[in-house]
Write a structure and sequence with these properties.
- The protein is of the alpha/beta class and 244 residues long.
- The chain folds into two domains: 3-165, Alpha/beta knot (3-Layer(aba) Sandwich), CATH 3.40.1280.10; 180-242, Orthogonal Bundle (Helicase, Ruva Protein, domain 3).
- The protein is built from ten helices and seven strands.
- A seven-stranded parallel beta sheet has the order 3-2-1-6-4-7-5.
- α1 (16-28) links the parallel β1 and β2 (33-37).
- α1 runs parallel beside α7, α5 crosses α7 (147-165) and α8 (180-196) runs parallel beside α10 (223-237).
- The longest helix has 19 residues, at 147-165.
- The radius of gyration is 19 Å and the shape is elongated.
- The termini are far apart.
């Protein structure tokens, strides 16, 4: 696992101090790729710079995105942090097993860790973009961690996992999983097909699509497999196929 290629994504951050503190937490553990999705404050704010405490280079290289899908483009796996248990959600992992899983992925492609808003966290729609829902073990009676604290804990566990098990060998012939944005385009295509054939009419569309997403994410589809499935969907959606 390459720590420098591990992407930390903050969604809808409202306080500049949290951006600066997150940058500091990342830099101390060797992470440098910080992305902001629809930030409600400026990473150049003096408080952000002060809280970064010497990690200004991380702030200088911050990338901003209008939505989570664009921030995850090119990433192979996305881990979404949430303190709440969500129904019909993707597989859940505690932080340490999640970090170990990330280390075992090796250095191919980018891995993203997604953190939500200070008050409300990530929405269900945003978590739909993530392969795993990750929870940080805390006291059951008080689970309140701010964004920067969560980033620090994640960065620490990633560094420890990289040092202990980051060199796990991967089969040379194994094709890596499809990138997050490749899967998202497939899911849009799949939803179009499911709607066109009437499958979604008899069900809760959002819940049905969430379950379908989970099925295909668990399959760890490769880019070639996604292309094959999208070819099948295009064949089904072609109106000339059904004309007599």
């Amino acid at each position: 696992m390459s720590l420098e290629r591990t992407r930390i994504v903050l969604v809808g951050t409202t306080h500049p101090g949290n951006i600066g503190a997150a940058a500091r937490a990342m830099r101390t553990m060797g992470l440098r790729d910080l992305c902001l999705v629809d930030p409600q404050c400026d990473p150049d704010d003096p408080e952000a710079v002060a809280r970064a405490a010497g990690a200004g280079e991380v702030l200088e290289q911050v990338q901003r995105y209008p939505d989570l899908a664009s921030a995850l483009a090119g990433c192979r796996l996305a881990f979404g942090l949430s303190a709440r248990i969500r129904a019909e959600r993707q597989p859940r992992l505690a932080l340490r097993p999640a970090a170990e899983s990330a280390a075992a992925e090796g250095g191919e492609g980018g891995l993203a860790w997604v953190f939500g808003r200070e008050r409300t966290g990530l929405t269900n729609a945003e978590l739909d973009h993530c392969h795993y829902l990750v929870q940080i073990p805390t006291d059951a009676d008080y689970s309140s961690l701010n964004v920067a604290q969560s980033v620090q804990l994640v960065a620490w566990e990633l560094r420890m996992a990289a040092e202990v098990g980051g060199a796990l060998p991967q089969p040379e012939t194994e094709e890596p999983p499809a990138a997050v944005d490749t899967l998202e385009r497939f899911f849009v295509h799949l939803e179009e097909m499911a709607g066109r054939v009437g499958y979604l009419d008899r069900h809760n569309p959002a819940l049905t699509m969430r379950r379908l997403r989970n099925i295909f994410r668990r399959a760890r589809l490769t880019e070639d497999e996604v292309r094959m499935l999208r070819g099948l969907l295009s064949h089904v959606l072609n109106p000339r196929r059904w004309r007599k």
